[in-house]
Write a structure and sequence with these properties.
By secondary structure, the chain is an alpha/beta fold. It folds into two domains: 6-235, Alpha-Beta Barrel (TIM Barrel), CATH 3.20.20.60; 238-266, no CATH class. The chain has helices spanning 6-14, 27-34, 47-50, 62-75, 94-108, 122-130, 146-149, 159-175, 187-196, 217-220, 238-255, and strands at 19-23, 40-43, 80-84, 112-116, 135-140, 179-183, 201-204, 212-215. The chain binds 3-methyl-2-oxobutanoic acid and sodium ion. Keywords: Cytoplasm, Magnesium, Metal-binding, Methyltransferase, Pantothenate biosynthesis, Transferase. The active site is at 183 (proton acceptor).
């Protein structure tokens, strides 16, 4: 499989091919997922919730993002590696935004960064792009704004909010972002935005007409079950498989069935 780049992702939209993205946080999973021709792996700051057990993504640090990006990078075969910029790593000044994005690229080995927000962070997005770092936007439900939204709710249901979101997306496109993740919005808005923009719109809870889809791997494998948004489809029940395996191990150790002859050195 050929290594996928930002250009691959851009071309896929032009060719009408759906883009596939999954989150990934470690070496072993990166190896498994990238063995299947996935287009992009996202080291999402969702790792704070699904891997570190925080209540939301706000405590995640740039160091956390770098640590997990390095692990994914070592296991990746062909996918484009995109890493989230965590809360407060890009909002304060354009200078800090570039410095943190640069660390994610140089130390982590990511090939692009993803940033939540629209026009209000445009100067930071431009500064990062000027530093030759590709950027993915993120609009709709932006989980780093959880305290502003008052929870994880579907966004842009009203006409006014939809107009604002489209303006944000157009501004990001004009600035030079190469794709936009669109989270938890009505499907008709996902369709409209995908038709309006020439860059790919990668949806998560934004309907079937987006140019691509992304899911959190722990959600779609049934590994993380503390809460499951409506937009998640469970493609496996790995959580149950783990519990079953652990139960069998405990039973066999206690009964003396494990280790048997074949797992024992003479
Ligand atoms: O952090 C994350 O996993 C994300 C995806 C849900 C798009 O940003
Ligand atoms: Na994220």
């Amino acid at each position: 499989m050929n290594k996928k780049t930002v250009s691959t992702i851009s071309k896929m939209k032009k060719d009408g091919q759906k883009i596939t993205m999954l989150t990934c946080y470690d070496y072993a999973m990166a190896k498994l997922v990238s063995s299947q021709d996935i287009d992009s792996l996202l080291i999402g700051d969702s790792l704070g919730v699904v891997k570190l057990g925080y209540e939301n993504t706000l405590p995640v640090t740039v160091d956390d993002m770098i640590y997990h990006t390095k692990a994914v990078k070592r296991g990746n075969a062909q996918a484009l590696i995109v890493t989230d910029m965590p809360f407060m790593s890009y909002e304060i000044t354009a200078c800090e935004a570039v410095r943190n994005a640069a660390r994610i690229i140089k130390e982590g080995g990511a090939e692009a960064v993803k940033i939540e927000g629209g026009i209000e962070i445009l100067d930071k997005v431009k500064a990062i792009l000027d530093a030759k770092i590709p950027v993915v936007g993120h609009l709709g439900l932006t989980p780093q704004a959880i305290n502003k939204f008052g929870g994880h709710k579907v966004q842009a249901r009203q006409d006014e909010a939809q107009k604002k979101l489209i303006e944000d997306a157009k501004a990001l496109e004009k600035a030079g972002v190469f794709a936009i993740v669109l989270e938890a919005v009505p499907a008709d808005l996902g369709k409209k935005l995908s038709e309006t923009l020439s860059i790919p719109v990668i949806g998560i809870g934004a309907g079937k007409d987006c140019d691509g889809q992304v899911l959190v791997i722990d959600d779609m494998l049934g590994m993380f079950t503390d809460f499951t948004p409506k937009f998640v489809k469970k493609y496996a029940n790995v959580g149950e498989t783990v519990k079953e395996a652990v139960k069998n191990y405990i039973d066999e150790v206690r009964s003396g069935k494990f280790p048997s002859q074949e797992n024992t050195y003479k």
